[in-house]
Specification:
Layout: E1 17-18, E2 24-27, E3 42-46, E4 53-59, H1 64-80, E5 86-92, H2 97-109, E6 114-123, H3 125-131, E7 138-140, E8 145-148, H4 159-186, H5 193-199, E9 204-206, H6 208-214, E10 219-220
Parallel strand pairs: 4-5, 5-6, 6-7, 6-8, 7-10
Antiparallel strand pairs: 1-2, 2-3, 3-4, 8-9
Helix pairs in contact: 1-2, 2-3, 4-5
């Protein structure tokens, strides 16, 4: 089992627990909530002969706290072994665009291939993270729900400030559509940014087969098997 390396001081020291005889390590860089429990991402690394896995789970809303934790975990796992794949399990209704893009940029920045797997739902920013996985390593389970749409927001203040924010949200919408367009093209789905913009004009819900046909995922997983290996 690899030795744990210290995370940057900006993040909490991981909490390590021995969970089973096969060598399961689970830790979270987030402190326990003082009141209500909320889903937080965590890493599990299973060391079994022939089946090493490094897993990060994204459960719930994408916000700045969750984003900071996942970014730290991605960087930590890459430093631990840059060549070993990372599996990101996603069950999220979406959330902050800037927080989601921080995760996406880190996924593409590190050298470790990041495989994405949708369990439950991947909506809004969750669907972009699902689509942004490494080529041929994007999956969903049979009863997953995927939803794409254009970003939304609100602002009030002086008319000039409202115009500035309106211009910014249009810029972000175009940027997100370009990300989808780039990953769909790699998957063999030649859609223009204008076609993607039209598709996302309203909430567009998809089941597993529709997401596969559109190119959001590369394969539907029926049974658990080497998802981190190229088909």
């Amino acid at each position: 089992m690899n030795r744990l390396r210290a995370l940057p001081r900006a993040f909490n020291v991981p909490i390590v627990r021995n969970a089973s005889r096969i060598g399961l390590r689970q830790f979270s860089g987030l402190p326990k909530p003082s009141q209500a429990w909320t889903p937080t991402p965590f890493i599990t690394e299973t060391v079994v002969p022939g089946t090493p896995e490094r897993i990060i789970c994204l459960n719930g809303e994408v916000n700045e706290t969750v984003s900071a934790s996942i970014v730290a975990q991605l960087l930590f796992l890459e430093a631990d072994n840059p060549e070993k794949p990372i599996q990101l399990y996603i069950n999220s209704p979406g959330g902050s665009v800037t927080a989601g893009l921080a995760i996406y940029d880190t996924m593409t920045y590190i050298t470790s291939p990041v495989s994405t797997i949708c369990v439950g739902q991947a909506a809004s920013m969750g669907s972009l993270l699902l689509c942004g996985g490494a080529p041929s390593l994007r999956y969903c389970l049979p009863h997953s729900s995927i939803m794409v749409h254009q970003p939304s927001g609100g602002y009030f203040g002086q008319a000039s400030d409202i115009a500035i924010h309106a211009k910014e949200i249009l810029r972000v919408r175009h940027q997100l559509n370009e990300i989808y367009e780039r990953h769909l093209k790699v998957a063999g789905k030649d859609m223009t940014v204008e076609e993607i913009e039209k598709l996302m004009e309203r909430d567009h819900f998809m089941g597993a087969n529709e997401a596969l046909e559109l190119g959001i995922v590369d394969r539907i997983l029926e049974k658990r098997q080497g998802v981190s290996k190229q088909p």
